Amino acid sequence: MKAGMRVCVCLLATGLFALGVCTTTQPKSDGYAGTDASPEKSGETFVSPLAKAVSSPSAPAVSSPSARAVPTPVIPPVEPASNSDDYIIGPHDLLEISVFQVEELSRKVRVNSRGMLTLPLIGVVHAAGRTAADVETDIAEKLLECCLQDPQVSIFIQEFVSQRVTVEGEVDKPGVYPLTGRTTLLQAIAMASGAAQLADLADVRVFRDQNDGTKAQLTFDLRDIREGKIADPLIRGNDIVVVGRSGSLSLIKGVTDTLRGFIGFGTVR
Question: Is the full-model pTM beyond 0.85?
Answer without folding.
Answer: no
